[in-house]
Amino acid sequence: DQNYAFVCEQLKSVRQDLTIQNIQNSFAIKVYECHARIALEKLDTTEYNQCQTRLIDLYQLNENLGNPHEFLCYRILYYIYINNTSDAIKTHRQNYQRKEKASEDVNFSVRVFNSWSTGNYYQFFKLIWTPQN
Question: HSE of 97 in the Cβ direction (CA atoms, 13 Å)?
Answer without folding.
Answer: 7
